[in-house]
Amino acid sequence: MHFSSADRSTVPVVFVVGRGPLTRARDVLTMSSILIDRLTADERTLECSIRATSDLERFFTGESFRTDYDVPVAAVPDGVLAIPVLAQVCPVAWANGADVYVDEVDATFARALADVKTTLCEMYDFLQGGTLYARRTIDPEPEPGDGSGLLFTGGVDSTCSYVRHREESPTLISIRGWTITPSPDDDGKWDVLRTRVSRFADDHDCETAFVASNMLSFLDHPMLLAHYKRHVDGGWYSSVGHGLGLLGLCAPMAYARGMTDLYVAATHWDGIDLEWGSRPDIDERVRWTGTQCHHDGYELTRQERLDVIADYVRSEEPTLRLQTCNDRLDGNCGECEKCYRTAVGLRLSGLEPADHGYPFAEQDYRRLRRSLERGEWVLGQDERHMWADIRERARETEPATPAEQAFFEWLAGVDLDDLISASEPPLTDRLLRAGARNAPAPVYNTVYPAWMAAKTGLQRVRSDR
Questions:
Q1: How many C-beta neighbours within 10 Å does residue 273 have?
Q2: How many other C-beta atoms are found inside a 10 Å radius of the C-beta of residue 374?
Q3: Residue 121: helix, strand or coil by DSSP?
Q4: Domains, the chain, with CATH or none
């Protein structure tokens, strides 16, 4: 191996000497390594397999990586087609100090990976970094375009981003593979989401793009969670992988459609320094030839994003409905923490929750307080900051009813850290993760189905409280 004589300072890739694809794993997989293998694009489907050294095998299920698009991607250059899988496996490699091998990669994305790696390694002490090896980097010339795209669910954050960028008529992008799994059991949920987003797009003169991937059944997410949960506030994908991962999935589609800008709505806001997989210093660094990604709305708190939506509702769309529920996709249950939190936020922005998809009555303030005090929902530091945001606005707002006043007074005095502590996952769940983390790979593979069944049972009991 040797460094290419190409500009080493701007293309942070080590080049592999030799001819033909990297298919002989024994030639390169001598250290902790992941090899991107057999990359193919058949009209609208991208597929590839990977090979990993024995120390990393436990983090992959053995499934080929597969992503389906609703536009043809067969003509997209291989260096761009490699982006979706690289966006999933590189953080796993960095967590283990491993190297990644690929035949061809887009040079702009190679630079982006180096930048994102720097951010993640600075954010998490347990990440060790690693090197990307390639036979070739490319600088393709896509067809000129001026379109934009927005990852869209219809929730507060993505709806606020739509409002802010509606003059661009961005393509609304929905992704299957994270909260909606590739399992046939989730086909109904995917149909509901597609129908809802398509209806929104039709009503607002936008196009849609639907991307379906098995990235979290290709990765062994439960094992990643077992190993790294102690280092992060949420799951592996939410805390480490989803900014790079979700944006990277869009690369072939964005290249084929001529999208120059791709927006992902911020979850947090300026002043919140949480370790999270989607932040300005991650998302703003993701790019490939022809496309720059943007972390949108970071300067606004969640309550301020609701204010943006409220202004839009009053001026242009009084019947706008939001979708944020943790338990349903075909409307909002009105009983989960996120539904309650959104309903209270809507009232603080001067809107009636029931007019925008949230059944909410005065007695719900009492139910909400009781559920928070009893720790009926598993909450993290992001929810703590969101309730603190609501508390700040409530202090400036005249309560409309006695029930609202009582809740605001309670919220003003409650210790939010105590509420978060009371909502920790059950001890049995933490013991299961520890057992999986310490099990040898063959043992883990044997007991994996039983462990998953137990974990699912715990989640079900927790959610039914």
A1: 9
A2: 12
A3: helix
A4: 14-138 (no CATH), 147-296 (3.40.50), 302-421 (no CATH), 427-463 (no CATH)
Question: How far apart (Å, rounded) are the C-alpha atoms in residues 368 and 347?
Answer: 15
- Rounded Cα–Cα distance for residues 113 and 182 (Å): 26
Q: Exposed/middle/buried for 285, CB within 10 Å: 0-12, 13-18, 19+? A: buried
Quickly state the pLDDT bin for 287 (edges 50, 70, 90).
very high
289-335 per-position pLDDT tens digit: 999 999 999 999 999 999 999 999 999 999 999 999 989 999 999 99
**Rounded to an integer, what distance in angstroms lies between the CA atom of residue 210 and that of residue 253?**
9
d(CA 114, CA 448): 34
User: Does the pLDDT of residue 438 top 60, yes or no?
Assistant: no
In order, the DSSP letters of 206-235 are: --EEEEEE-HHHHBTHHHHHHHHGGG-SS-
Q: Global pTM?
A: 0.87
Least confident of 8-22, 56-70, 94-108, 128-142: 8-22
Question: For the chain, what is the mean pLDDT?
Answer: 88
> Degrees (nearest 5) of the Cα angle 13, 17, 20?
105
| pLDDT over threshold 70, residue 429 | no
* Residues across the chain: 465
Measured distance CA(375)–CA(413) in Å, rounded = 17
Sheet arrangement for strand 45-52: 14-15, 132-138, 99-106, 33-42, 45-52, 65-68, 208-213, 171-176, 147-151, 259-265, 291-296, 287-288
Instruction: Tokens for 319, please give them.
Output: 């019947």
Concatenated DSSP letters for 297-314? TTTS-HHHHHHHHHHHHH
What is each CA distance from 356 to 37, 165, 353, in whole angstroms?
Answer: 47, 21, 5
Half-sphere exposure of 118 (CA within 13 A, CB side): 10
Contacts of 360 (CB under 8 A, 6+ apart): 334, 340, 343, 347, 353, 354
